[in-house]
Specification:
Blueprint lengths: L2 H10 L2 E4 L17 E4 L8 H11 L3 H14 L4 H13 L3 H8 L6 H13 L3 H13 L6 H21 L6 E8 L15 E5 L10 E5 L5 E8 L2 E10 L2 E2 L3 E2 L10 E6 L5 E6 L9 E8 L4 E2 L3 E2 L10 E7 L4 E6 L7 E8 L13 H9 L2 E4 L8 E2 L11 E4 L4 E4 L23 E6 L5 E4 L6 H33 L3 H17 L2 H35 L1
Parallel strand pairs: 3-19
Antiparallel strand pairs: 1-2, 3-17, 4-5, 5-6, 6-7, 7-8, 7-9, 10-11, 11-12, 12-13, 12-14, 15-16, 16-17, 18-21, 20-21, 22-23
């Protein structure tokens, strides 16, 4: 059931309905996978402020809705319904700490109690979350949506506890926080890995992207589509005269929940996808299934382990076997309409934390507050400042194989220093060509309207220049290696070649491509805003 369908019940039933699928902000509203009806205190329909706020909430415009709801709280600061609505707006904007404050003044409402459970779940406090879900279920009829939703959440809590016992050891190569509307375009896949694209849908219930995947041979598409307010995964095959009609994948893949974000591995049988199905630990989780030729169908999907999955939204797992890396996106601990894309080392087999790992330490790895990074003499880690999880005081300790990075969240973020000293480079301030759109190309830094876009370009240009300098140095060393017969000299040159080859790991290329895309997106926004202002000014004259 789509978010639009859910919210329409809010007005007609004088209830608040949480979201199972995206409208304004998400095809990925993790805590809102189940349809939830919450009986609320009746509000006079003649109150225009509340009616307008409800309409804004219904449209997913939480920021403006909050302003109006808070106006009413000045007159009646302890009104349960108004506090609940402010809390709900903040919750769906991922501002869960502030949401908790307002929901505490609405605890006579079962929906507010339920949402408190979601807040505790998102903080991995599963015991507290279960207590709130159980309490909310006792406040409503066993025939209500909320009662069923509580049962689903409690099952999710049990699954989360099981996953927390076996947290995977993941080596993180890179991460970047981006707008969720185009996040999939920043997956720097090799040609052999296929193509990710936005699947255009006729649905008006979802405004965040439906994604699709096309094989490297461009002979098969797997994509998500909305039908009757529900998101499912379909497949099409290339024919001589076009494409076959879309076929809905079987019930092993598509469920009464929402399925989205498909990715088919190069073997042609391993399918990763996101789902809000029963057993999800909060909403969209990543699942994997394989096609069985023996049974001519897909096997029962498996839920990917933590830290890939979380009580937040996690989706679009993509493995690039050619590069030996993988990607996935998550909105954990990130406010607003953003997600963080993680690039990780793709292992041939899953490796889990040792059995003697303490519960507290295992929890930090599950949250991605602590994770493994390559050793200093391997692939450098390129970190981007994070506006939500602030990273500055970073404890890095070396293990036998890799390093461990711990994120702290109480200081202003700064980029992490590269562990390998790169080739000294400088970037051009003029005389370059940077394409913004098909019609607009910049040739100097002063062309940028957006300071943020310029900063992203400079960072990308620096990383690209460092990579090019290393490639040039690598070519020289290889020529030297070929021209000498001295064994000692060959060994010395070989060591230097290996160091540079490691330095030229995929993360640097991924990083500068990501920064260039971020630069273009921010500059296009600035250009559009300038045009709007000029048009408005002209109209006022």
């Amino acid at each position: 059931m789509s978010k639009k369908t859910h919210i329409s019940l809010l007005i007609s039933l004088l209830s608040v309905l949480a979201y199972g699928s995206p409208k304004k902000a998400q095809p990925d509203e993790k805590a809102d996978a189940a349809p939830i009806v919450t009986e609320t205190v009746s509000t006079p329909q003649t109150d225009k402020t509340i009616s307008k706020a409800d309409s804004l909430y219904k449209a997913g415009n939480y920021k403006e809705a909050i302003k109006l709801y808070k106006e009413k709280l000045y007159d009646d600061p302890h009104n349960p319904r108004t506090n609940y609505m402010v809390g709900a707006c903040l919750f769906y904007a991922n501002e869960i700490s502030e949401a908790d404050y307002y929901l505490s003044d609405a605890q006579e409402l079962p929906g507010a109690v339920f949402m408190k459970g979601d807040i505790y779940a998102k903080q991995y406090e599963f015991g507290q979350a279960a207590a709130y879900y159980e309490r909310a279920s006792r406040m409503v009829s066993q025939k209500s949506f909320l009662y069923d939703a509580c049962a689903r959440r409690l099952q999710g809590i049990e699954n989360a506890r099981k996953l927390l016992k076996s947290v995977e050891r993941v080596i993180i190569l890179d991460s970047v926080t981006v707008d969720k509307k185009y996040f999939f375009s920043l997956y720097a896949l090799s040609d052999n890995a296929g193509i990710l694209y936005e699947h255009k849908s006729n649905s008006t219930d979802y405004s965040a992207p439906f994604t699709g995947y096309m094989t490297q041979r461009e002979d098969r598409k797997i994509y998500s589509e909305s039908t009757d307010g529900q998101c499912d995964i379909y497949v099409q095959d290339k024919l001589i005269d076009g494409w076959s009609k879309g076929r809905k994948l079987p019930d092993e893949i598509n469920t009464p929940g929402d399925e989205n974000f498909p990715f088919l591995q190069e073997d042609g049988i391993t399918l990763y996808f996101g789902s809000t199905r029963h057993g999800s630990i909060g909403g969209y989780d990543i699942f994997v299934s394989r096609y069985s030729s023996d049974n001519s169908g897909y096997m029962s999907p498996l839920q990917i382990s933590m830290p890939f999955n979380s009580p937040w939204n996690d989706y679009l797992m993509a493995i690039d076997e050619n590069k030996g890396i993988g990607f996935w996106a998550t909105d954990r601990f990130i406010s607003g309409d953003s997600v963080k894309i993680y690039t990780f080392k793709a292992e041939s087999q899953s490796v889990f934390l040792p059995a003697n790992t303490s519960d507290a330490e295992r929890l930090q790895y599950a949250k991605l507050r602590k994770f493994f990074i390559p050793q200093p003499d391997t692939v450098p880690v390129i970190a981007e400042p994070d506006s939500v999880i602030h990273r500055n005081d970073t404890d890095t300790t070396t293990t036998a194989n890799d390093s461990v990075k711990t994120e702290k969240t109480d200081t202003v973020a700064t980029p992490q220093e590269e562990k390998i000293k790169p080739q000294e480079v400088s970037i051009q301030t003029t005389g370059f060509e940077f394409k913004i759109t098909d019609e607009i190309t910049y040739t100097k830094l002063d062309d940028f309207l957006s300071g943020e876009a310029k900063a992203y370009y400079q960072q990308g240009a620096r990383l690209q220049a460092e990579r090019n300098a290393n490639i040039e140095m690598l070519d020289k060393l290889r020529a030297q290696y070929a021209s000498t017969d001295n064994a000692t000299e060959k060994k010395k040159i070989s060591t230097e070649i290996l160091k540079i080859e490691r330095r030229l790991g995929t993360s640097t290329k991924i990083a500068y491509e990501n920064y260039f895309k971020l630069s273009r997106n921010n500059e296009i926004k600035a250009i559009n805003n300038k045009r709007k202002q000029e048009l408005l000014k002209k109209q006022q004259q």
